[in-house]
Each structure stands twice: as C-alpha cells, then as structure tokens.
UniProtKB/TrEMBL annotation:
The chain crosses the membrane at residues 12-45, 57-79, 99-116, 122-142. This is histidine kinase. Residues 319-523 form the Histidine kinase domain. The keyword Repeat does not apply. It comes from Paenibacillus anseongense. It is an enzyme of class 2 (transferase). Keywords: ATP-binding, Kinase, Membrane, Nucleotide-binding, Phosphoprotein, Transferase, Transmembrane, Transmembrane helix, Two-component regulatory system. It catalyses: ATP + protein L-histidine = ADP + protein N-phospho-L-histidine. PANTHER family: C4-DICARBOXYLATE TRANSPORT SENSOR PROTEIN DCTB (PTHR43065:SF46), SENSOR HISTIDINE KINASE (PTHR43065). Pfam families: GGDEF, HATPase_c, HisKA. InterPro entries: GGDEF_dom, HATPase_C_sf, HATPase_dom, His_kinase_dom, HisK_dim/P_dom, HisK_dim/P_sf, Nucleotide_cyclase, Rev_trsase/Diguanyl_cyclase.
Amino acid sequence: MVIKIIKHIGIPFICCLTMVSSIAMGNAPNTTAVILLGCAFYLSIALERKLPFLPNIQFIFLALFHWSSHLNWCLLLYYMLIGFSIQNGQKYTYTMQKALMYIGLYTCIRLSYVPFTTYNLLVSIYDIASAIMFVLLVQYVIRSESEKKRLREEKDYLTTHDPLTGLLNYEGYVTTVENLMVKRFSFVLVLLDFQDFKSVNYENIHNGNETLNQIALLLGSIFYDSYAISRYAGDRFAIILPAKENLISNISESLNSNILGFQVTYSFAEHPLEAATKEELISLAEERLFKSKREIWLKREEHLFRSEKMKMIGELAAGMAHEIRNPLTTIKGFMQIATKSQYNIQPWHELIMSEIRRMNELTAEFLQFSKPHISNMKPESITECLDRVLSLAESDALYRGHTIIFEDTKEALYIFIDRDKIVQVLLNLIQNAFEAMKHPGDVHVRIKQENELAIIEIEDSGEGMSESEMEQIFNPFYTTKENGTGLGLSICQKIAVDHGGSLEVKSAIGLGSIFSFKLPTVDV
C-alpha cells in the first residue's frame, strides 16, 4: 500500500515540483524537454506492470529528466528507484551495485551543471556514502519486518494447528466453523473417533504417532474437497465438508467399509439446517458421537455377556451329556428287546423311538458346547472349503427349487481352520437360507476380503427378520422352527469365536437376510 502511494502520488508530486521549480528559477535549458522527460519518467513508473521492460530503463528517463531540470532535487527520485530495487527482493550485492550506479549517474549529471569545486566534489562523496547507508538501513528494516512476519505466521500456525499431524487443532477448527458461518456457507461437520487406536498407542507411543500421521494423510486424500480437517483431541478428528446431496449417506457407506483401517465411530451435524451457531453445531455433533460410542460399548458388553453365557452352557452341556446318554442307551435297548419279545407296546413304539432320537440329537448338539478347543487346525483355501459345502447343499437346493449363486474373490485366500467345523457352519447357514424362503429363490454365497479378514456372506431372499428376532437369534434354545432345538446358530457362533472370527447378521422384514462369517486370513 505504501509503495503504491509513493509511485502514484509521491513521484508525480516531486516530478511536478521539480519541473515547476526548474522553469521558475530559469534552470531548465529547454522548458518543453523538462516537461516531456518528467512525464516520461512518471509513465515508466505507472506502466511498469503492463510493460515489464520499463523497470530496466527507468533510470534513463530519470537521468534525462535530471539533466534537463538542472536541479539536485532529483536525488530523492534516485533514492526511490534504489528503494524499489530493494523492495522487489533483489540480492544485496546486486542492490548495492545498482545504488552506486544510480548515485554515480546522479553525481556525473550534477557536476555537469555546477561549478567543479572542492565543495561539490566532497558533496559527491557524501552522496555516495549516503546511498550506501540508505541501502544498508532499508535492507535491515526489510529483513527485520520479514523475520517478524515469519515469526507471526509460525506462532499463528502453532496456535491453530496440531504439531504432530499438521492438521488444525480444536481452536483452528472452531475458528474455521465460525468463519464459514459468517460467510453463510452451508456445510456438514463430521466427527470421527477411532475406537481401536488406544490399543495401538498403548503398546508403543511411536507406533501410535505414526498411525495418527497415516490417518491424517488418508483423511486428506479421501476428503480432498473439505473446508478443513482437524485432529482436536487425541484420536478424534473433525472434518468440515461442503453440503451436497446424499453427502451423509455416502460418507456413512465409506466409513462403514473400514476404509480407514480402524473401526471408527462417527457423527454428523449440518449447518444451517440443524444448528445456527457454532456452539449448537459442535454440541450437537459431540452429543451424537457420544450416543454412537455408547451404543457400540453396549453391543460389546452384550457380546461379552453372550460369550460368558455360552461358556456356562458348555460346562452344563458336558455334565448333562454324561447324565442323559446312559439312561437313553438303556431305554433304547429295552425297547428293542421288548419289540422282539412281542410285548404289546407297538402302538407307542414309533413315538418312543422318535423321542429317543430327538434326545440323542439334542445331546449331540449339547456336546458341541463342551469341546474346549477346535482340533485338526491347518491352513485351508476358502474357495476349496466352499466348493465342498456347495456340493453337499446342491441336492437339497434342487429338491427345494432354489438356486445357489457363488461369487468368488479374485485372490486366493487361506484361513487357519478345522475344516469339518467350518463346513458344518456354512452348511447350516445355507440350509437356514433354504428354509427361510417359502418359494423358490436365489441364495447368494460371496467371498470378500477386508484388510486381514476373509468374509463369507450368505444372502437369502426370504421374509427377513425383525430387530427383536435378530437380537435373540444367536441365543441358545431360541428358535422359530416347529421342530428346531434352537442350538444350531449358537453352535455356529461358538465355532466362529473359537476360530478367532465372528458371525453377524443383517436383515429387514421383506428384504431377506445376510449372514456374514468373518475369519482371519493367513499367509501360505
């Protein structure tokens, strides 16, 4: 701003004052020349942006104007040209050479119209010394201001940015939210909480810091169009995104796909649709994040409780199996002898034998809980395992009129399993899918990979389940089948847990169900 004032007000004023004074005092040899040359010098200053070559010849116009005016007042204009050279960031040595050239030129022109006396000669030496001091002083001032500006920028950066990741900190992201509201922008605030990060940070702080940096880089690449990204509290991040159609659903889909490598809890708050002030917006997002974390915590506690419950049932099953099998064997043998001896119990024979078979089946299923470890564990190909399952289920599918659609992954995936147990689980899930469809339909069997997990999905087109049914489906003895024991899915889940995996279900009334069997992969 100051430079503009000097160029467009200071220089024309000095030029006009010099021209008028030179003409009034009769110093100018040629009135027309001094006026034209003064205007030419000013125009070379005013048009230098449009004509980039002008700064290289401005000193020529100034020298001619100085010679035509015969006034020493032009010295200030020479100093201004020297100042412009310094302000443009030219090197110190180059600026000093230029300053000496300008003052040397000024001195030569001045000595051409003043008497060559000792005083005038000494003044010339003084002018050269003054130019050197001027350059040194201006350079010092500019460098001092530049250093102050750099320190201010660093201080502002440290005040508003996280030193580890380089992202905005809490103050920085709150300021950004406030500025966007002032500008009346529509945007969505997304808060992320990485639930599994604390275990990484606990094991090794260096690994934790490295992980945070990787997360920051990944967030920057995924949300490249964001207004701001912030790490505002440990493993919590805030992202401010411009409001778009279907933005929230698209982000939810991405975050649920485990794209960040960690299980992440997230929440949204939209301005101005849901909140008008920054306090309301941030409070709303934080409240929703807390509720999401609480729901996940409750599910984990429920899963832990279920695991403990399964352990207790396993201990119970071991005792019951021993107590029940012996009398069953005795009763079965007695009934067989009685039938051969023509005892008149024929009308109840099938009923008694049916009950005995049912109790034997129940006992066998109880024994699944009592086995503490999976045996015969070795690396197996998922595809080969599923080929075995599909060949066993093919005849049942044809009989019921169903079609099995198998979608394999492109990569060969291996899992460390007891093959017979996994075949048992998958066959059970496919048979459940058959029974869930009252009319002929399709059963989709897919293999997927997410990070270090292999996922086998079994999807039916049946009637689906309600929320209350999904909450109880893995509980022992819960069944919707007329002749079911309610232990099939409980056993499947126990086998999944024993293999270090999990069994989950998604369902909706009228849309069918998807069972996801997740197992850790191994390198072969």
